[in-house]
Every structure is written in C-alpha cells, then in structure tokens.
Amino acid sequence: MMTVDTKPGPDVAHLRRPARVRLAWLLLVLAVLTLVMLASVAFGSRAVGWSDITAALAGTDDTLNQAAVVKRIPRTILAALVGAALALSGAAMQGVTRNPLADPGILGVNMGAMLAIAVGMTTVGLYTATAYIWAAIAGAALSSLFVYAVGSLGRAGPTPLKIALAGAATSAALASLVVAVVLPRGDIAENFQSWQVGGVGGATWDSIGHVLPFLAAGLAICLLCARALNSLALGDDMAAALGERVAVIRGIAALGAVVLCGAATAVAGPIAFVGLIVPHLCRLLVGLDHRWLLPFATLVGAALLTAADVVGRVVNRPDEIEAGIITALIGAPFFIYIVRRQKVREL
C-alpha cells in the first residue's frame, strides 16, 4: 500500500473550493443520502406507504407492509455503513499511493479478505461474526502487501498502472483459490456463494453491532490522517520537509483503509468500484483537500451503495439483483475511462 515515488504531486490548493460551495454540496449530499435511505425503506418487492413507514419506525409491525419496513431498516443502515467504509477506504488508498486507480476491489484487497474467510471456515471452523471480521482484515492486509510488492518490481517502481495490473491478476488468482477451497465443502458452498456476490440482503441488527466498532476505528484512523495526506500529495520530499514522518503516515492510513475494507467485506461480501468512483467524484465537488474529501467520500459512498441496493430490488421485482452487481455495472466503464486518461500516472 506504500509508494516510493518522490516526485512532487499536484498542489493541494489547485482545486480548492470556496467554503460556501463546499457547504452547499454538503447539504445536497446529506439531502440525497436521506432520500435514498427513505427510498430503501419504502421500495422493494412490495412498495409501502408513508403511514406504514411511520408506524414501523414507531415499533409497530402488525401488517405485512409494516413488517417489511422493519426488515428493511437494518438493511438500509448496513448499506449506508458499508458504502461509507468502502468509499473512505478507496479515498485513503488513493491518497496513500497517489494512485488514481486505487480501489479495494481493483487492488485485490476484497478478494484477500474473502479468501481468508473461506480458509477460516473450511479449516479452523470460524463461526462467529467477530472471527470473520478479524480474518477478513488479516487477509486484506496480506493481499495489500503482496500486490504492492508485485507492483513494485522493475526499474520504474510501483507505478499506478503496474499496481492496478498486479491487483487485477491477484484478484483473479485469489478468486480461483476461493472456489477451490469452498467447492468441496457442500455444507457451506451455497451460503458462501450467495455472500460472494456482494450485497446487504442478509443484514441484521446483530451483524451491524459486530461490525460497527471496526468501522468506527477505521473511520477515525483515516480522518485523523487527513491533514498528513495533504502533505503527501506534495511529494515525499516536501512532506518530510514539512515535518511529516512519511512511512509512518502511509502505514497508519493504509491500516485504516484495510480495516474498513476487511470489515465491510466480512459483513457484505466483496463489493467493487465504490472506492474508485466516489473519491474521483468528490474531488470534482470539494477539491483535493483530504480534510473535506474524506468526509465527503464517506457520505457519498453511503448514498451510492444504498441507491444501488434500491435499484437492485426494484428493477427485477419480485427477485433482487445484489448491490455488488449494480456497482460493477457502473464502475467497470468508469475504470476504463480512468485508465485511458493521459494523466493516469499519479494523482
């Protein structure tokens, strides 16, 4: 997850936005997030009215519509939490590596978490939610280190495109290993395959309670590194001249990103491209200052994944399309666009 590139990066002030513009975008993002969360509660295999929603929020589940709302509330909250975690993880990874292609899915971090869970389930009998999360974080960390090591080979060092290619190859290899590990175990294969697609359909209050402390820790770590990531954007030499301990900051910020990604993957499966799309969009809205970029990415990521979950429930009623498929349909063309940009070399 680290890089040895010491070339000066873009001036953080170059795309700075006035405070009133940022506040306007903040209010708009909060409004959109509120609307998509309400839509997530209202729409699904059956649509419900406002009276049913208010009754369910008051604790009533006497009718089928009210019971549906009660079931959708934890799903909505988990979608927002996972989307926020993946977007913040991607923004932190891009800041640490100065790599516009950095994303937990593209760099193989998600697949590393998934393989660790698969191995734990089939060998040592992991069965608790907390154990799944710890295993996923360990797998995500090992996968990140491996991808960085492979992408650093050669004279040019860890260029963005080399790391992205190493991540794609690693993801493919790890996906094959997951199949090889899980397929002989018919007792867990069916449930694992449904989780492997990536979605929040199995959300419960228990799962939210188990993953929330990990997400809160990862959020705090990344946000505390925001100012230092601004210095890293100026280049390693300049950051060191400003008094930053470059290697330490990269390690801490990368740790926060891995914790977020591993915990989100453990509870929702490997959902790709949220961490790629959202940071680029937020840079257009609020500029390059990570003190604004990271919180905005958190909110926009929550709105994006919640909206993807709503779309997946509505377009194929009464069946569902998992949110991970919807984000892949959106993210794959965006990834191609980023790769083809002339300035793909670094942020």
From TrEMBL:
Keywords on record: Cell membrane, Membrane, Transmembrane, Transmembrane helix, Transport
Location of this chain's protein in the cell: Cell membrane
A GO-annotated cellular component: plasma membrane
Pfam families linked: FecCD (PF01032)
Domain of life: Bacteria
Main localization category: membrane
The protein's name in its UniProt record: Iron ABC transporter permease
Keyword Ribonucleoprotein: no
Alphabetized GO MF terms: transmembrane transporter activity
BP GO annotations: siderophore-iron import into cell
Species for this entry: Micromonospora rosaria
Keyword Oxidoreductase: no
InterPro entries, A to Z: ABC_BtuC-like, ABC_transptr_permease_BtuC
Family: Belongs to the binding-protein-dependent transport system permease family. FecCD subfamily.
Membrane topology listed for this record: Multi-pass membrane protein
Regions crossing the membrane: 23-43, 73-93, 105-126, 132-151, 163-183, 203-226, 247-272, 292-311, 323-340
